[in-house]
């Protein structure tokens, strides 16, 4: 199960290493979906079409609920994507893609040298990227009476709910996106505030 909140990149980052004449340009992107990761990789390829290799590793999600991808992009098997992924998995970061572009400098590095270079480049860009927290939301629908509206509206705001829609008819219906780890306590407090008159339902995010 995905954590209700987890660390993600707050922006992009770029750094460069020179190893025995070869340039290793590491670029990091926040990528909350696999499509976003693929777009970031394609963008790097398009921006530097003359590079020798564009190796990458990405994680979408966090912890045990991740989708992972990696590529050696023509480097010897296991010398680029796998060590990049090992560094990425140890970085305590989700929704992230790292692309390391290599411009060959004329000197072969060997498998061990490549592993170190791609690992070091990945580690270097991870060290400079700013971080933030991604919050996972649950869509809720609250049915309530007018007499309970002000108190329940304040309760939702206090729990960082994002109000999506309010319908004022015979009763009031509030649709909101609430951090998933707040749903249980908000549901309980709504029952207390309204003496059981209000009702909270969960709904799919759209």
UniProtKB/TrEMBL annotation:
One of its GO terms (cellular component) is cytoplasm. Residues 20-126 form the Impact N-terminal domain. Residues 142-197 form the UPF0029 domain. InterPro entries: EFG_III/V, Impact, Impact_N, Impact_N_sf, Impact_YigZ-like, Ribosomal_Su5_D2-typ_SF, UPF0029_Impact_C, UPF0029_Impact_CS. One of its GO terms (biological process) is regulation of translational initiation. Pfam families: DUF1949, Impact_N. It comes from the Bacteria. NCBIfam families: IMPACT_YIGZ (TIGR00257). PANTHER family: IMPACT FAMILY MEMBER YIGZ, IMPACT-RELATED. Belongs to the IMPACT family. This is Impact N-terminal domain-containing protein. It comes from Chloroflexus aurantiacus (strain ATCC 29366 / DSM 635 / J-10-fl).
